[in-house]
Structures are given as C-alpha cells and as structure tokens.
Task: structure prediction
Amino acid sequence: MPEIRVTPLGAGQDVGRSCILVSIAGKNVMLDCGMHMGFNDDRRFPDFSYITQNGRLTDFLDCVIISHFHLDHCGALPYFSEMVGYDGPIYMTHPTQAICPILLEDYRKIAVDKKGEANFFTSQMIKDCMKKVVAVHLHQTVQVDDELEIKAYYAGHVLGAAMFQIKVGSESVVYTGDYNMTPDRHLGAAWIDKCRPNLLITESTYATTIRDSKRCRERDFLKKVHETVERGGKVLIPVFALGRAQELCILLETFWERMNLKVPIYFSTGLTEKANHYYKLFITWTNQKIRKTFVQRNMFEFKHIKAFDRAFADNPGPMVVFATPGMLHAGQSLQIFRKWAGNEKNMVIMPGYCVQGTVGHKILSGQRKLEMEGRQVLEVKMQVEYMSFSAHADAKGIMQLVGQAEPESVLLVHGEAKKMEFLRQKIEQEFRVSCYMPANGETVTLPTSPSIPVGISLGLLKREMAQGLLSEAKKPRLLHGTLIMKDSNFRLVSSEQALKELGLAEHQLRFTCRVHLQDTRKEQEMALRVYSHLKSTLKDHCVQHLPDGSVTVESILIQAAAHSEDPGTKVLLVSWTYQDEELGSFLTALLKKGLPQTPS
Amino acid sequence: MSAQREAAPPLARSPRPPHRLAAGSWAPEVTVAMESAEDWLVESLRLYQDFHAFDLSAATRGLEWIGDKGVFVAGYESLKKNEILHLILPPRLSVKENQGLFPERDFKVCHGGFSDRAVLELKHVPDTRLLVTSGLPGCYLRVWRVAEDSDVIKAISTIAVQDEAGGLWPRLAVFSSAPRVLHGARLSSLQVLDPESGETTYSSGISDSEELSSLQVLDGDTFAFCCASGRLGLVDTRQPWAPLESPGQSPGSGGQRWCAEVRAGGSGPGPCFSSLGADGQLRLLDARDLCHPMSSVQCAVSMPSPSPELLRVTWAPGLDNCLAISGFDGTVQVYDVTSWEGVGSQVEPLFTHRGHIFLEEGEGHAAALVTTHTWHPSKPRTLLSAASDASVHVWDWVDPRAAC
Result:
C-alpha cells in the first residue's frame, strides 16, 4: 500500500510526552516512549491501547526507536516493555543506552520512595527493558529485518541525541526528536544529508519560537553568579553528571580568567569521575573543541575549578559549587542546599526541569518552606533561579533542517492544526512541501508514489532506440514489452525473449473480416481502387499494392474476391493480427462506408 | 560617573590565554570580531540589567506594541513575500515578581500573515484586532484582522490613497478614543479613516503638498505633524485647517530631513515637541511657541544619517525628561534633556546601546543600521530595537548615575 501513516499517541494536545507511531510499507515503528511529567496517574503514559486493546505489543511493532535520554522521550519505556509487554528490539545510540537507565532509576526512586507510588516500574524492570536495547552508531545503516532499515544522525541538543531515518524500499521517514541547529560549547549542531525522505517529523513548538541568543542566556548566568559572589554569597548549581555541567564550567572558567576573579569554584568529585568515564566512552559525540581539550589534558583540569570536599561547604566567603544530583532530591547537592538555604545572600541555579516530588521542583514552584525528614522545616531564603540551557531549534532552525533534508512533506506534532494556519502556509510556501499537523490520537495518511526499479534488457533497449532517436532524454517514453517478476526482481524484456525464456511457443491471433461492397468491376480493379482510396486517405500509414493484387496497410492484409453467388457484390477480406486490432477495426469501418466514385 | 562616549574604539583587551571562547576553527578576522563580541558581553554585565537578542528571518522597520506583552513586526523587502508577525514577549519580561523562576527567554510567534508589498508603516488600532499598514509600491493603506481562533493575520481591505508626485507612502497614527486612523503622505492628503467602514471622517482640505515625516495623535481631537523639512504643527480636527505651527526650516539649516515626537503629559504646561534632524540636530519646542525652540543641541553622532527615513526620536513613557534617538548607525542613544538650554551645544548621551554593532552575525556585510526602536510601555528603562540585519534586541539599561 503506497502510503505512510503517522499517529502521535496519547490524549490531549500537551507537549511533554513524545510517542509517535509510524506505519510505512507494512512496517510499524514506535518513535520515542516518553512520560508526561505533569501527571501522576495513567495520563502520564502514552495511550498504547491504540496499538492493541489487550496483549503484548511485540507482534504489532517491528521496532522502537528512542531519540535521547530525556524522560519526556524515554520515561515510559520500562512501563511499555515490561508492564504492557514488548519483546522486540529497542534502538538508541550508545550514550543514550548508557545514560537512560540512570535517569530511569532516579525517576523511579523519586516516584516510589519520595512520593510513595504503587504500580510503578521496578528496578528489575528497568534492567530487563535495557536488555532489549540494540545500540547504534551514527550514520550506520541498521537492518531491522530484510526490508526495514534505520540510520541515526547527529542531533546536538544533549549527549547521544539523534535524529533517525526509517527506510523501507524507496519510502522513508525522518524523525528529528529534539535537535539544535547552532553549536554550543560542548556539542555540535544537528546535521543531515540530502536524503529526501517522503516525510520529516518534527515538533511544532520549534516552529513558533524565536530563540534568545545563546550568548544572552550565558550572559544572564554569568551575571547572576557574578552578582552573588560579589556580595559574598555562595552559588549552588545542581547538575546531572554530563553535558550541561561541562558547558557551564567552560563558561565560568573563561569568565573568571577574563575578570581575574579569585573566588573559588568547585566541582564535586563524584561528578568528575563519572563525567570523565562517560566522556572517554563518548568522545566522538562532543564537538571539536572539547575533543581537543580532552586529548591535551584531563577534562576537569581547569585553572580555576577545583575538586570539592564536603568540608568546604562550611567555609566562609563566596564560592561556586557544581554538585549532583540535578534535581536536589538526595545526595551532595541536597546536603549543600540545606546548609546554604537560610542565607539570602546565597543563590541556587537550577539548570533544568525537575520531576514532581523533588526539592528542586518545590522551590521552582515558588515554595519557600520545605518539610524535610524528621518533620524539620527548612526556610528557603536563598535566591532561586531557574535557567534553561537546553539547546533547541527554533523557526529558523526548522527551515534550515528542511533545507538540508529536502523532504516531500513535513509533519509537526504537538500542535493544533486549525490554530496554526499561518505556520502551515509558511512552511508549504517556503519549501513547496505539504505540511501536516495531527492531534494526539489522530492519524495522518500520506500517499506516496513508490518507485519500483525495473531492469530493461539490452535487446529491447536497442530496438527502441532503433525505432526513433531518444531526443528528449528525460521525458517518459512508452514501450511495449513483457514484465517478468521473479524473486523480487523486475525485468522488462521483448516479447520474443520472454517467450524464449519461459519456453513458450509464440501464438498469433489473426482476425479476418468480410466487407461486402456492391461493385461490378473485376477484383483486380477493385483492389486497385481500394489501394488508391486507402493511399490517399491514410497518409500516415504505409499502404502498399502487392503484385498478387492484395493491398497491405502496415501489416494488415486486404484482398478482394468475388462473391461466390452474386457477381455484382465484391467481398473484401480484411485480415489483421491481434496487435493491430485498432487499425484493423478502423479500416473495416472505413471500407464499409464504401469506395469513392472516381472515374477510372 | 561620566556619561559614555559614542562610537568608542573597541575596548582594550588584556592578553588572552590560548583558551578561546570561540568553538571550532575560525579565520583570524572572525576571531577578532568574536572577541569584541565577547568583550562587549562582559561589559554588558554592568551596563544592562537584562538583555535579550533575537534573530528574525527578515529585518523589520516596525515595532508596534499590542498591550504590553506583544509586538508586531513586518518585513520590508520589495520583491519578496513579507511576513507580518505578532510576537509575544518572554513571560519573564511581563511578570513583576519571581522573575528568576521563569526560564523562558524566547519570543513566541502568536500570529502571522503575508504581505506582497514592503511594509514600511505598521500601527495597531487600540481596543480592536485590527492593524493598518502602508508601504511601497503604491500609495495605499491596508487593513488587517488578527484572528481569534487561529494564528492568521488576514488582509481585509486595501484603500488606495492619492499621491501626486509618487514614491511616498502614507504615515500613520492611531486614535485611542475611537478606532480611527490618521494617515497621509503629504499635508494635502491628511485624512482620518474608520478602518472598519472605510469611511473618511476628516480631511485637511488644503493644497499644501509638503511631504510629511511624522504623525502623532495627542487626544481625540488633536494631532501633531512634522514635515520632512522640519516644519511642525498641532492641528485641532474640529476646526478648519489652522494649525499652531513653526515655520519651515530656514534655508541655512541645510535642507536636511527631520522627524519629531511629542511628549504626552510630562512636566510643563504644554506638549513638548522633540525634533530630530538627519545631521544630528535635536530641538525641543513648547507647543505654545513653535517658532522659538526652547533648546537646540547637537547630538553625539559621528556622521549624518545615511538613511534619514529611518530617523526616530521617542520620549520615554516611564522616565522624566528622557528620550531616545536612532537611525544614524547601529546604535540607539538615550539622552536626559533636563539641563538642556540655548542653541548649539554638544550633548553626550546618558546611555548608548551598541548591541547591534557588536553582536552582528556574519562577516563582510554592511554594518547594521538600527531601523526602529520603542520604549516598553511599563518598564521604565526597557527598550526594544531592531536593525537592518534582522536582529531585535530587548534591553534594560542601567542608569549610570544611579551608582554614584
């Protein structure tokens, strides 16, 4: 069936839960399996009942692809594979495979231990789920089965994030996931080749955003840090082990150097070890600059940034500390937070989204009194800043990506079609592509025209060329031949060759028609008159008068004979082969009208 | 603290360590440009309270507020389809408290529409969902409606307006008391239009065809005009044409182009005109005596404006005696007019925004020129500025005198 079907799963129009079903040439692929962080009940999971009402999903899906480790793209994966049931392959890049389980486990701990949720996936489920993962490299074509293949492209955004091309035969779809078109300090920009997919699937929010420049975001961060340390305060920056932390360290290091600042900056050692470990594994995923620095020296041998010791937290005076975990839900960052929260000169900068139930989430919601263990109430007087360093594409970025990939159509998820008329027009006009915007649960069907390659035999090609010059090289041309389909192979050969190959004898089908005409002249004269008539009427055809008295028009034979019983009636026998049916019928009809009365 | 000098040479740099901010390998010229950008950003930490920089897909000559949370911008390319966009400012610029808890720093495109002609003037009709634009080619007004249930800005009517000599487009000003638009390319073609009915409710009715450069509505019955020659006037629409006005510029002043803005309210018994000329002259005039300027100064611009049509002078709605000028180069200058008097003195700006020069992307292009600027209606020191390289900045400058 030459069509591609796309359905974003789940109820409501909310952004925050990516899970898209694609049906291409009979293969079913699930793109991402994210969690909606805003809900505490089943609404946080995509609606898998769309695929099947009951039973395991293994038979209905050929594979699952995860674009990157953010929870709104992989948070529902263990639930999907272990609680709903799926045993097929799950594809993701190597860094994603390494980092996903850590985030999922963190998330699980928070949900179960902190919020006391029942019916949540267990640690074992996370492990079992990850066993089904097949890791892929960038630009590596992976055969899922003998028809379906996938390929990952660099997406920027976070470590290991990829855009995926899904291909069956000549039909393909590209899913961007989250991506970024401008390089930042530790990651490069997304890139894709001119793969010309039938469809490019991306986020509608990108298209309606115009992003503040990266420099201004960095400026804001530096300003907040600088102001805090200038007044003698301490800055806590909770980070996850990878990615953003490096970015911010490089930024601070450069700034400290330029401004000749002496305030100490610390990086907790747990972070350093983990980060170094991951960077060694995934060095190819970072940008050129980081790779060079890593080769020259250890990632964390900054001039101004030192390893942290928990005792330092009690030191007087200003300092900046990077500590894990990122959502302030446990561990060192929470410890430091408790020590510093009571002083309004201090500041905590949260660099990312925090899951409900964590201290991070609470303070970002504006809560200033927190209940800690043992009923202790912590008053938060320190300044709380929420900064987003996540690099996402925007309207300009989408256009750039569409320009690179050159898809036939674009599909935007998480938008409302009737509210986005201008946007659709803009994309359609700028790139002459169709633009679709399905709602969650709504299916978009794209007709495609698959191209089927057919080999043509040399003999047939030569014959066609002999018949007329191929003057207009790129124009379609009508051929007569026989299509032989054998073992998924298509060949076009001449009829004679086909018969020979198939071991069949050629049969000819010949029609003969009798036309009765009233004419007293002799047969030869009759034939001559027929010849003259046809010659003058059928200027485009080859009309010949043969020595035996018969007339030929191309390969059609006309013979004049006398009627056996009535000498005044002549019978014209018109004979043609099956291939000349059209001309034969035409001739017959023409002759039935009679011959013109010409003077002999 | 001394006021800043305009067009200062690049800030002196201390020797840099090999550790560069720029990623990847760059040609040396570009590295230098990047470094000044970085230097400027570090400087900006103390110059600005807040600063946002955006890149539109096409440059705009309009920054028109709708309420205090959104602005309209529109392209002005002559041979392309231009976009008119309704942008919503990032929430952190609108909230009064807890700004720090709003991480989003981006514009959202709320509505958009297409114009087949360059949009040179753009005004929102207050309390309606209507926009009025004018531009080239042709002398016309176009009325647009901003949809409620979708993201479309749709053209609903085009009104041709006569222009004898051609090549001009009508200036626009809107009334807030009733949905009416004041328009005209010349004094003779000044009219007031009801954009919904298309009916003209007022005409200047005079034959003087002097070219207009600024129009401004002061209240339900009064508007001010400034001609390109510098001639200023206040008109009462209830009377036949008899404006309070200044004479046109005396021949000695070099025939430069002028624009003007009247300060609404403020201290002083009558409206105060500020009139800016293409060579940097700025005059302050009391509406009761337009023949004798209260003061006339020379602004700190290094050369006359290369595009006098882009000249713009605006009074700060939230600060006493402050105004901003642009249209000479890639800067916006803020002046405090409190102690100005007499004729001919040189004045220094209180603050100069150089972001459009230092953050210019791309090498080898002509230097960016600020096409327009506007003050935030409620945040006293916040401005928006747009430049010819399609950049739009939102900046909240620190008053250099505050620290002293």
Observations:
- Chain A touches chain B through 49 residues (CB under 8 Å).
